[in-house]
């Protein structure tokens, strides 16, 4: 989940080229950075807990003939920045190895660091100690490791540099007397490389030999912990309330009387049921095959799949590769609320399907600060219609798909949005009645959005804390989601039936990881969902699980009795996820949960 690059030359590297490669690598994460250099006949590693462009400026490696860099989106191993050095073998790695903990016993070695990347260096050493050849190092690493491995392995003692990938998130090109590589092709074109090729397999390059130890220098240690240690507390967990509420529900679906704008007819059936139009009736698949035909390419990727690592985007990626037979780039936007579970599933799917993953990472520390500011403002004047502001920061997902389209030259984007995820209540609590003819999960249209923003602004006046540094980020994200015109844009589930059992069975075949704190598979990689659903259930007696299961009932996919049993389980508070969320944004668990629990209920209590 990082950006890596390298320039291997016989002469000093180009300052301009180096700065371009570093800047682009930083797009994938700027939490920490590292450089691997060859200068004065020695190899050096520099690491820092600040952006890569700043590290390049500070180190100024412009007299070096070999420079490799790493810009990190922190997943695990907070203090273990890359490049990793073990047994005098250096590694820079983009991806997550999901089975690294179980591999140490297999190779008879012990980890010295927390980060998963260390296992690549250890396997390399184990392979060579066992009599294996340099040419077969990549085969051994990729055979043992599960998850995305796109990396450079530096073996100074043998004078070899290996670059290899199991999903294609690595490119190599030539320029004059130098060879360059990067996580994506775009920066290589920007520096004028020729013969740019996607690395699937291994490329072995000669570098100067050295028997001396790699010298490592740490520039600065991060003061803010972006991955708080998850410490659980029985006291905290018992603060979370979960009581069965006595509340009137629709006799056909599950929607309760606290649902905004709900009305019941003489038979007790709600207006949401009476106005429902079937959504899960796909068009003929042949239509989609015909639509995408002109986008297919004989060489290279031919479509973009927005990819969160959640249940439906993972199944959508499977359909694009296995059924539609296209060659996608999976695009992920990380705004600081993608959990490690979500990231591991991204890595699993991309590795198994051999799909390149382009990540655009925002300033995670800043984004989490924005969430804390808005949550503090919300707690001062709790309003169910304003809960959605806690997830406003993720709307730049829609902005950056245009970035990826521009950088890859790919226009077609295929979305795996579940058609049953419509949740009228989130805007309903703000005062916006349901629009039953809406055909998309996300509402578009200028007049609707202006109405929404007007009502949100009125609610914000009740708590001036909303007028903070996040305001522009929120408004601009909403603009890109709802106002910008979308082109070459299609939905997979307009052409494939969404069937929960089939989806889950398919993902199980990829060893897709489920959450330990819930039996649900929906939104388990989203760091915000458990908290906002706790708010909705505590105050209104239902969550988005109730609306989702109600849609399944209307589609004839599930019985009402089965749905009731499911939501009783799915609405239970997910303490580990809520704890992670509040710790991550720096909010006190006890204070926040007690404040939520004290909000007046919308039902008899």
Please tally the β strands and state the result: 18
Question: Regarding quaternary structure, how should these chains be classified?
Answer: single chain
CATH fold descriptor of the largest domain:
Rossmann fold
Query: Unreliable stretches, pLDDT < 50, 5 or more residues?
Result: none
Read across the widest sheet, the strand sequence of neighbours is 11-9-10-1-4-2-3-13
Give helix % range: 25-40%
Radius of gyration: 25 Å
**What sort of overall outline do the alpha carbons produce when their principal axes are compared?**
globular
Q: How does the major sheet shape up?
A: 8 strands, mixed
Classified in CATH, the superfamily of the largest domain is HUPs
What's the overall average pLDDT, rounded?
Answer: 92
Pfam families: GATase_6
Keywords: Glutamine amidotransferase, Transferase
GO molecular function, one term: glutamine-fructose-6-phosphate transaminase (isomerizing) activity
EC number: 2.6.1.16
């Amino acid at each position: 989940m990082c950006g890596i690059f390298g320039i291997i030359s016989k002469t000093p590297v180009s300052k301009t080229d180096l700065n371009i490669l570093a800047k682009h690598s930083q797009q994938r994460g700027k939490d920490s950075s590292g450089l691997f250099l060859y200068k004065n006949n020695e190899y050096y590693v520099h690491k820092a807990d600040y952006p890569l462009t700043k590290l390049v400026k500070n180190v100024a490696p412009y007299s070096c003939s070999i420079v490799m860099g790493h810009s990190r989106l922190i997943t695990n191993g907070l203090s273990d920045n890359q490049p990793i050095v073990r047994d005098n073998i250096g590694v820079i790695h983009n991806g997550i190895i999901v089975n690294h903990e179980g591999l140490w016993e297999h190779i008879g070695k012990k980890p010295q660091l927390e980060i998963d990347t260390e296992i690549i260096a250890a396997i390399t050493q184990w392979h060579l100690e066992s009599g294996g050849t340099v040419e077969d190092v990549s085969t051994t690493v990729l055979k043992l490791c599960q998850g995305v491995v796109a990396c450079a392995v530096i073996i100074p003692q043998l004078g070899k540099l290996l670059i290899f990938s199991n999903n294609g998130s690595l490119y190599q090109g030539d320029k004059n007397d130098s060879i360059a590589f990067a996580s994506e092709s775009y920066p290589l074109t920007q520096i004028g490389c020729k013969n740019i090729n996607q690395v699937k397999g291994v490329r072995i390059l000669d570098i100067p030999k050295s028997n001396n130890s790699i010298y490592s220098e740490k520039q600065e240690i991060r003061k803010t912990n972006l991955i708080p240690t998850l410490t659980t507390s029985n006291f905290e967990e018992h603060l979370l309330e979960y009581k069965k509420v006595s509340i009137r529900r629709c006799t056909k679906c599950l929607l309760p009387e606290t649902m905004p704008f709900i009305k019941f007819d003489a038979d007790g059936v709600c207006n949401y049921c009476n106005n429902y139009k079937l959504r899960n009736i796909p068009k003929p698949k042949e239509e989609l095959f015909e639509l995408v035909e002109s986008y297919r390419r004989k060489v290279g990727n031919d479509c973009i799949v927005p990819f969160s690592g959640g249940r439906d985007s993972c199944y959508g990626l499977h359909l694009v590769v296995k059924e539609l037979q296209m060659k996608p780039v999976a695009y992920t936007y990380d705004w600081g609320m993608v959990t490690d579970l979500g990231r591991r599933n991204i890595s699993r799917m991309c590795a198994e399907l051999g799909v390149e993953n382009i990540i655009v990472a925002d300033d995670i520390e800043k984004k989490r600060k924005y969430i804390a500011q808005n949550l503090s403002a919300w707690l001062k004047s709790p309003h169910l219609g304003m809960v959605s502001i806690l997830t406003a920061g993720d709307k730049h997902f829609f902005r950056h798909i245009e970035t990826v389209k521009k950088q890859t030259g790919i226009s077609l984007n295929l979305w795996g949005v579940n058609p049953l995820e419509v949740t009228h209540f989130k805007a309903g609590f703000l005062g916006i009645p349901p629009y039953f003819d809406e055909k998309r999960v996300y509402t578009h249209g200028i007049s609707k959005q202006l109405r929404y923003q007007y009502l949100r602004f009125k609610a914000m006046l009740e708590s001036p804390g909303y007028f903070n540094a996040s305001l522009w980020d929120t408004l601009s994200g909403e603009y890109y989601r709802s106002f910008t015109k979308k082109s070459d844009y299609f939905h997979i589930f307009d052409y494939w039936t969404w069937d929960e059992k089939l989806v889950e069975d398919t993902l199980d075949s990829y060893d897709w990881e489920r959450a330990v704190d819930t039996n649900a598979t929906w939104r388990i990689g989203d760091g915000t969902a458990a908290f906002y659903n706790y708010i909705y259930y505590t105050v209104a007696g239902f969550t988005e699980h109730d609306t989702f299961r109600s849609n399944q009932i209307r589609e004839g996919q599930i019985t009402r009795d089965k749905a009731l049993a499911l939501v009783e389980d799915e609405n239970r508070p997910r303490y580990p996820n809520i704890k992670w969320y509040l710790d991550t944004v720096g909010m006190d668990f006890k204070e926040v949960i007690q404040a939520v629990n004290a909000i007046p209920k919308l039902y008899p209590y």
